[in-house]
Amino acid sequence: MNPDHQAAAVSQGFSVSPQDRLPMMAREAMSAAQGEAADALIAGPRKAVFGPFIPLLRSPELMVRVGKVGEYLRFDSLLEVRIRELAMCVVARHVSNQFEWLMHAPLALKAGVPQASLDAIAEGRYPHSQAQDEAAAVDLVTELLQHHGVSDSSYAAALGVFGEQGVVELTTLVGYFAMVCWVMNVARTPTDNKPGFSPLAAFPA
């Protein structure tokens, strides 16, 4: 089952309204700080202003700092891409954020996460995996989201696979993605703001 289709009925942030509360700003409406922050984002690895960075643009300094944290966690973390993407999918589904789900489910599949695991996450089931690192990651992420902490057994399993730095980075990744999902859920950011679409690209830096 395609995880994109399976989660299609889940609303963005449990909202029944399609209203975008904090839509993309016109270039001429931006302050100098907002324009600089947007241009920096476009010049970086994301190449566009999209997703959570649209509402975050209202606080340009915060957007820059959040973006740097996310840049490390997404692109430079010692965690394997497959584990990062799996964790992001679990978080996106838990907080009912369609944007991050629709972005990261295909990336997770491409990185090697089994289709069956993504189907399970999409349906709200536990994604049983034969891979030790995936099972350890899912246990830590799921317990953290549900109980705001982790058991000794789940901590030990994650520590054995990822080491201390990996456990810290995985935990921080959960917090980071929950945060940006919450920003979009509150803003009701539409799900069709995809990377590669840069509403500012036509404007000079």
Description:
The protein has 205 residues and is mainly α. Mean pLDDT is 88; it is low at 3-9 and 196-205. It has nine helices and no strands. Helix 2 runs parallel beside helix 4, helix 4 crosses helix 9 (152-187) and helix 8 (132-147) packs across helix 9. 61% of the residues lie in helices and 0% in strands. The longest helix is centred in the last third of the chain and has 36 residues, at 152-187. The chain has two domains: 31-76; 80-187, AhpD-like. The chain has helices at residues 3-6, 32-43, 53-56, 60-76, 81-94, 98-111, 115-122, 132-147, 152-187.
Q: Taking all residues together, what is the mean pLDDT?
A: 88
CATH topology type of the largest domain: AhpD-like
Structural class: mainly alpha
> How are helices and strands ordered from N to C?
HHHHHHHHH
Share in β-strands: under 5%
H/I helix tally: 9
* Main beta-sheet strand count, sense and barrel state: none
Morphology: globular
- Helix coverage percent of residues? 55-70%
Low-confidence stretches: 3-9, 196-205
CATH class category label of the largest domain: Mainly Alpha
Number of domains: 2
Q: What do we call the CATH homologous superfamily of the largest domain?
A: AhpD-like
What is the first-to-last residue Cα distance? 43 Å
User: Radius of gyration, Cα only, in angstroms?
Assistant: 17 Å
CATH architecture verdict of the largest domain: Up-down Bundle
| Count of β-strands | 0
